[in-house]
């Protein structure tokens, strides 16, 4: 994606999103709200990440956010990205039954399924220029969503990002509840 730098306004909107989607009234509303927040986070993360190369596949496929395994979002993710663009490319949502190293994804939310566990999908994606995201509490993705005090937060494994050839903005790193730093990290943007 090059070395574009997120604007302060975009960062402020990203932080505001966290505050707006606080605890919901009623137990049944909370899971839907959590999924809506996660769906929005998926595309809001993109401006804070630099990829080393375009994904495998036709150049005109857009900026692909892939959901692998059992889709927890349904139409929520499609509605969240409707009309949005990243680097002039429309955001496209793809749903895949299993992870594949050559999948044309920039961001891959790995939910797991009977056909492929989260761990197996992450193992397959190791080293691919893809931002892997999970909500697996044991971690393993470049970004892992967690729920703390009724709100969606995230942890970042910056070493996993480096292993995938990704560079994550220090601004995004500062918003994480925890960061596993990359070895020899210096000169963060």
Write a structural description.
The chain has 189 residues and is α/β, with parallel strands linked by helices. It has a single domain (8-180), classed as Rossmann fold (3-Layer(aba) Sandwich), CATH 3.40.50. Helices cover 30% and strands 25% of the residues. The protein contains six helices and ten strands. The protein has helices at residues 8-20, 29-44, 75-81, 118-125, 158-163, 170-175; strands at residues 49-50, 63-69, 85-86, 89-96, 107-112, 131-134, 143-148, 151-157, 167-168, 178-180. An eight-stranded mixed β-sheet has the order 3-4-2-5-6-7-8-10, sandwiched between helices. It has a two-stranded antiparallel ribbon with strand order 1-9. Strand 7 (143-148) and strand 8 (151-157) form a beta hairpin. Helix 2 crosses helix 3 (75-81). It is globular.
Low-confidence stretches: 1-6, 19-28
Mean pLDDT: 83
Per the principal axes of the C-alpha atoms, what is the gross shape? globular
Order of helices and strands: HHEEHEEEHEEEHEHE
Give me the number of helical elements: 6
Radius of gyration: 15 Å
């Amino acid at each position: 994606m090059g070395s574009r730098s997120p604007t302060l306004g975009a960062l402020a909107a990203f932080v505001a999103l966290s505050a707006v989607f606080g605890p919901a009234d009623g137990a049944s509303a909370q899971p839907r709200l959590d999924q809506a927040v996660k769906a929005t986070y998926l595309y809001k993360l993109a401006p804070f990440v630099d990829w080393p190369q375009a994904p495998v596949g036709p150049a005109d496929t857009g900026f692909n956010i892939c959901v692998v395994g059992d889709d927890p979002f349904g139409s929520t993710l499609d509605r969240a990205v409707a009309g949005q663009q990243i680097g002039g490319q429309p955001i496209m949502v793809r749903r895949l039954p299993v992870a594949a190293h050559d999948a044309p994804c920039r961001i891959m939310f790995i939910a797991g399924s009977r056909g492929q566990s989260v761990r197996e999908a992450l193992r397959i994606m190791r080293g691919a220029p893809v931002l892997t995201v999970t909500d697996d509490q044991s971690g393993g993705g470049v970004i892992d969503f967690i729920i703390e005090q009724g709100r969606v937060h995230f942890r970042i494994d910056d070493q996993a990002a480096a292993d995938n050839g990704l560079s994550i903005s220090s601004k995004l790193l500062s918003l994480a509840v925890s960061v596993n730093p990359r070895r020899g990290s210096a000169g963060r943007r």
